[in-house]
Design a protein that fits this description.
The complex is a heterodimer of chains A (about 300) and B (about 140). With about 300 residues, chain A is mostly helical. In chain A, about 40% of the residues lie in helices and about 5% in strands. Chain A has helices at about 5-25, 45-55, 55-60, 105-115, 130, 135-150, 165-180, 195-205, 210, 255-265, 275-285, 290-300, and strands spanning about 80, 85, 230, 240. The longest helix of chain B is centred in the first third of the chain and has 45 residues, at about 5-45. The chains are: A mainly alpha (about 300), B mainly alpha (about 140). The interface between A and B is medium-sized, with 21 and 22 residues.
């Protein structure tokens, strides 16, 4: 072999090894045996609370005038814009062909906690499973039961409009190693029940940090700046900090912030409307008052 | 002045005028919107019973809000997005939808002017405020 040939062969071997390593590192994970408790008795009321706390309808809402739109069902079709292109979050109603009708509890828990589809594909992190994976199994199963109790809507998913879809998809596997490497978030011990409830609702289903916590170079939430605000993930404008809201005199007390979350701009709370916050606020408005108080108590404790 | 100099000067004047046009429009609508927001603060304090109910104040405040909203609406002139402005470019590609939202909000502010008793204030205010939110959701950028 000439030198040039030998160099080429070496490069080719490296290329193959690199590709193999890439495939190995980016392989979609699967749920451990026993990860989903058998015989869970679903609490639909709690499932509905999780649905609103998670603002599922904000992203999975029907397209304007599309199937399911008039009943406010999460039939998908509404565009979710990101700097890399438009996503069309799928139909979450129990239609067997176009929705979650044929999904098992296991499929749902794998999607929500590992970001992996029933066919073993990585979901893009625009679906905030990095937060949802911290939800309790009981809450996830109640949420799934609630989704299955909704009227089924036939609404085939619209393909995402992303250039370089296939490459990006596998690359998500690398991102997950950084973003999902640590154990899921869990509330620190020793706080009051309502603070703990508020912390859970904010950080697990609420996924508030998806916008309010800035991201590092690898697009992973920088928890050293938890809820400190930063550039808006959709690309234009900023997301405000949720730390020090009391010191900045933005809200008077817990009751004031709870009212702001429930009424938003309807009562003149003007900083809860733009950049996707309006949809979150309108979902939060459907939570029981005790949960809104809990979220407000937690947020006002962030200094 | 030489011809070339005169041309340059003319262009410079045009450019400055362009910037002034954009920033005048921005300042005018920003100030008007802040006044609409101020009225909202007065009335929500009343709805929350932090201040006593007064039908005359409701009427006058809602009337000012309506006038200021119309002033702001007239200042969304073409090519005045960008810079400090939080106006989304979509305003100018969906102009009919944007104008219809302004109209709907103005009507809600007219309804608010007709509030005579305390019980009617909360629902009328929330309806008006909800239509501010609809537009800020769709056509205003976060700060």
């Amino acid at each position: 072999m000439t030198r040039a040939r030998r160099a080429l062969a070496a490069l080719a071997t490296l290329g193959v090894a690199g590709a193999a390593a890439f495939l190995l590192l980016t392989r979609p994970a699967s749920l451990a045996e026993g990860a989903v408790p058998a015989n869970h008795v679903a609490d639909l009321r709690n499932g509905e609370v999780m649905y609103h706390a998670g603002s599922c309808a904000a992203c999975h809402r029907a397209a304007e005038g599309g199937p399911g739109a008039e009943r406010g069902l999460p039939a998908g079709g509404f565009a979710f814009p990101t700097p890399v292109g438009n996503f069309y979050p799928q139909n979450l109603t129990p239609d067997p062909e176009t929705g979650l009708g044929r999904w098992s509890e296991r499929d749902f828990v794998a999607a929500m906690t590992l970001g992996v589809s029933p066919a073993g594909r990585h979901y893009f992190p625009a679906f905030p499973y990095a937060a949802y994976r911290s939800m309790t199994k009981a809450d996830l199963l109640d949420l799934f039961a609630y989704l299955r109790s909704l009227p089924a809507v036939k609404a085939p998913a619209r393909p995402h409009e992303l250039p370089l879809l296939a490459v990006a998809q596998r690359g998500v596997g690398l991102w997950k190693r950084l973003a999902l490497g640590d154990a899921p978030w869990s509330p620190p011990p020793g706080r009051s029940p309502s603070w703990t409830r508020g912390a859970y609702l904010t950080n697990a289903p609420g996924h508030c940090g998806e916008c309010h916590t800035p991201k590092d170079w690898a697009m992973v939430a920088d928890e050293s700046r938890h809820m400190a605000g930063g550039p808006h993930p959709a690309g234009e404008g900023k997301v405000p900090s949720l730390r020090g809201l009391l010191a900045a005199k933005k809200y008077k007390d817990v009751a004031d912030l709870a009212l702001a979350l429930s009424a938003g701009e309807e009562l003149g709370y003007e900083n809860l409307s733009s950049g996707g916050m309006a949809a979150i606020q309108q979902n939060l408005a459907r939570l029981p008052d005790s949960d809104l108080q809990a979220i407000a108590e937690y947020l006002l404790s962030l200094e | 002045m030489k011809l070339s100099k005169r041309i340059v000067a003319a262009f410079a004047a045009l450019a400055v005028a362009g910037v002034a046009y954009a920033s005048d429009a921005y300042t005018a609508r920003h100030e008007a919107m802040e006044k609409v927001g101020g009225g909202m603060g007065t009335l929500s304090a009343m709805a929350k019973k932090e201040t006593p109910f007064d039908a005359a104040v409701v009427q006058a405040t809602a009337k000012t809000m309506e006038a200021e909203l119309k002033k702001a609406a007239a200042q969304f002139l073409p090519d005045t997005a960008g810079g400090k402005s939080r106006a989304k470019a979509e305003i100018w590609t969906n102009r009919a939808d944007f104008d219809a939202m302004m109209q709907k909000t103005a009507e809600a502010l007219v309804a608010l002017q007709g509030v005579k008793d305390e019980a009617a204030l909360m629902p009328a205010l929330r309806a008006a405020g909800g239509s501010c939110r609809t537009c800020h959701d769709k056509y205003r950028l976060p700060e």
